Amino acid sequence: MSSAELQSPTASRPGVVAIGGGHGLAATLRSVRSFAGEVTAVVSVADDGGSSGRLRQAFGIPAPGDIRRCLVALGDPESAWARYFEHRFDAGELEGHPLGNLVIAGLADATGDFIAALEEAGRLVGCRGRVLPASTVPVVLKADAAGGAVEGQVNVSSTGRISSVSLVPPDAPACEEAVRAIAEADLVVLGPGSLFTSVLAAAVVPGILAALASTRATRVYVCNLRPQLPETDGFDLAAYVDALAQHGVHPDVVLCQPTGRPSPEVSIPMVEQRVADDAGTAHDPVRLGRALAGLVGWPEAGPC
User: Fold this and answer.
1) Less CB within 10 Å around the terminal CB: N or C of the chain?
2) Residue range(s) defining the domain that contains residue 108
3) Distance between CA 22 and CA 73 in Å, rounded?
4) How many Cβ atoms from other residues are within 10 Å of residue 302's Cβ?
5) Residue 7 has pLDDT above 50, yes or no
6) With contact defined as beta carbons under 8 Å apart, do 106 and 92 qualify?
């Protein structure tokens, strides 16, 4: 894709889908809400640790933790519910559970429909957009690593020299609304975030992977500011892009922070733009928003 194509103007505010999990996906959502029309988060539900692990085991629901973070990221900043969703109990049987996780689990149990539960939770926090699971069933993340097969997101995140990840069950159904959003989007953003346990954990759901391959949207991979140890120990930009390609994920462009060092050769167009905060430790929502808006020809991205 040429730079002219990447910069072609859009007639209206672009529809944006952001895919991944954890704090990285929440950062992307805070960035794109400044310029996007429709915003959809497609969230990994493979988390099996902490509150999410306990609730998915108790209720048989997809992991709610990363979904909660995304609801808050897209929520009304003035909403008391958006603030309270992050309250974490520190004693008793509820110790370790954020309030938002319990609300999502309770709504799912009451409605019998996880997607309907997320819609209701979104209304509570004043969500500007939709937050959807990559898969509608609980999934287990599996990694092939130098030491052999590893199962469970917590275990995978503590593993180095990973060659590939997959899901159990391998035919986990994708959320239909998420597939539709990817098909209709103008911009699809992958990352930043843990490559194997967040980004690919969401993208390798078969229906999501097929939607990424067929969408007409500009697909952007936002590279991490540094390797995540031990998961991507020793990775440079080319290693991230190669790992995506090995899983069938082929972005149109990769967006990364300038390093001041010679850039490794990658197989797709690369845009170097300042997207980190002044300390260089996290992606700055305003800077990242402006960079992403520019890739779809939207002239301005205001305050988030």
Assistant:
1) N
2) 50-128
3) 11
4) 10
5) no
6) no
